[in-house]
């Protein structure tokens, strides 16, 4: 058995703010995290800091990219226990996407599809929650019963098997986690 993490954030980008208008959810970005020190955070988002239209598969970090811009990014970190086999499936997909990152693009039209309740799914195009939902289904962790292109971050956040372990400032969590050998819970 292994622990992975699902990180929900409010990066305060124009895309996240636009999504919030429709979802009314506190967190409008989601990442899958394969290490408890947040060094292996993956999602779909901006590839270039100053260009919101340059999106795709990204390896994120609390102190880099969009997260580095604002010191008060709110987050909810949840743990999820997976089998070794499920972890291998997750890791396989993440590594394939990482190795072929240039082939994967952000599914901007998919965001519009959520608003219109129309699944707009393109090969090798994802938005953050579409990507996490895809990974969870491929690993046999959860079947959503609807297209990945209609899954919003708050729907993943409401999954009953996620265990909240920290809610608060992303930078503060990272500083404590990075400097201290033991996790101090914020919940």
From TrEMBL:
Name of this protein: Uncharacterized protein
Gene3D superfamilies for this protein: endopeptidase domain like (from Nostoc punctiforme) (3.90.1720.10)
């Amino acid at each position: 058995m292994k622990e992975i993490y699902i990180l929900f954030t409010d990066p305060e980008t124009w895309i996240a703010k636009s999504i919030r208008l429709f979802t009314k959810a506190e967190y409008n970005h989601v990442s899958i995290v394969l290490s408890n020190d947040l060094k292996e955070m993956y999602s779909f988002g901006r590839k270039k800091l100053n260009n919101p239209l340059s999106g795709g598969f990204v390896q994120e970090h609390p102190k880099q990219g969009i997260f580095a811009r604002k010191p008060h990014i709110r987050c909810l970190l949840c743990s999820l226990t997976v089998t070794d086999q499920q972890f291998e499936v997750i890791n396989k997909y993440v590594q394939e996407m990482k190795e072929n990152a240039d082939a994967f693009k952000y599914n901007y039209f998919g965001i519009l599809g959520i608003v219109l309740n129309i699944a707009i799914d393109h090969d090798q195009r994802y938005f953050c929650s579409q990507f996490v939902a895809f990974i969870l289904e491929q690993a046999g962790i959860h079947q959503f019963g609807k297209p990945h292109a209609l899954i919003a971050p708050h729907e993943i956040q409401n999954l009953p098997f996620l265990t909240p372990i920290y809610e608060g400032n992303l930078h503060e969590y990272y500083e404590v986690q990075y400097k201290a050998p033991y996790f101090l819970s914020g919940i």
